[in-house]
Amino acid sequence: MFSPEGPRLRELAVQMLSSVERGYDLLAPKFDHTPFRTPDSVLEATAAALRRLGPFDSGLDLCCGTGAGMEVLAGVCRRSVTGVDFSAGMLDVARERTRPGGPAAAWVRADARALPFGPAFDLVVSFGAFGHFLPHELPGLFTQVHRVLRPGGRFAFPVVAPPRPGSLVYGMFLVFDAAMRVRNAVWRPPFVMYYRSLRFGALRRELDRAGFRVALHPLPEFGRRPDGSPRVRLVVAERPAEREAARGPSAVRVRPRRAG
Questions:
Q1: What pLDDT sits at residue 3?
Q2: CA dihedral defined by 16, 8, 29, 110, rounded to 10 degrees?
Q3: Which pTM value belongs to this model?
Q4: What is the mean pLDDT of residues 201-225?
Q5: Strands 149-160 and 104-109, bridge-based pairing
Q6: Is the separation of the CB atoms in 47 and 75 below 8 Å?
Q7: Is the predicted pLDDT of residue 254 greater than 60, yes or no?
Q8: How many other CB atoms sit within 10 Å of the CB of residue 111?
Q9: Over 60: is that where the pLDDT of 210 sits?
Q10: In what order do the strands lie in the sheet with 56-62?
Q11: Bridge partners, residue 108, by sequence
């Protein structure tokens, strides 16, 4: 699972016994050599889908980590890109890997649940971050994203189809989540990282409640499952334009039925 340049078992143990923030500070120098980093194939497919929807002026990478998602933004945003994360160590690595040229880049240390921005972005992306939020935190998180988007702006993130119950991957996720729950029950501070705490139905429901209009875009690069459903989708949640949002659902006209 880990390359020779990745963390050793002892380093991972120390990380997992720390807080989320401190754990990622420790892991940052070797994070890109772990399976926790979003694969390049997913980043590239997301960038291709966003190019079809763009271009955009300014973008935000939510929970940017070491900045892999910033490269996606740099390819679809014309003016500026911003990465936000609460791990200073991850941000340090991200700054170092910033490539010259392209849109202006900025890095901000902040909690995604209390973003220090106004409505300044046309696009927000996030990769592999939702496992660090408990289900009851989703409403506040999505409200924050909605607030920092300009009207008509989009919040986009890839979602992989859940593994089939009984499969090896399903069992691995089940064991990992169980181990994390035991760890958090007996050790403080907690380290919130779960693979199976977020259900797609709940995610979409909370996006709707936050005021987004949600669309799903299959990423054809990853093919389809035996039942015909896409293996990977890009969720694109749009903040409606102000005029459209002001109308609300009650403004939808219902054509009267003709008699007879």
A1: 62
A2: -10
A3: 0.85
A4: 93
A5: unpaired
A6: yes
A7: no
A8: 14
A9: yes
A10: 104-109, 77-85, 56-62, 121-126, 149-160, 232-238, 213-218
A11: 84
Average pLDDT of the segment spanning 111-139: 92
Q: What is the pLDDT of residue 170?
A: 75
Backbone angles phi, psi at 253, to 5 degrees: -75, 140
Query: What's the distance, CA 186 to chain centroid?
Result: 29
Amino acid 164 reads R
Q: Which residues are bridge partners to 233 per DSSP?
A: 159, 218
Structure tokens at 152: 């008509």
CA dihedral 70, 7, 192, 20 (to 10 degrees): -70
DSSP calls for the chain: ---TTS--HHHHHHHHTS-HHHHHHHHGGGGGGSTTSPPHHHHHHHHHHHHHH--EEEEEEET-TTSHHHHHHHHHEEEEEEEEES-HHHHHHHHHTPPSSSSEEEEEE--GGG----S-EEEEEE-S-GGGS-GGGHHHHHHHHHHHEEEEEEEEEEEEPPPPTTSHHHHHHHHHHHHHHHHHHHSSS-----SSS--HHHHHHHHHHTT-EEEEEE-GGG-B-TTS-BSEEEEEEE---HHHHHH-GGG---PPPPP-
Residue 141 tokens, joined = 């998180």
Q: Convert the pLDDT of each residue in 180-208 to its tens digit.
A: 788 878 878 877 776 766 677 888 999 99
Which domains are assigned to the chain?
9-242 (3.40.50.150)
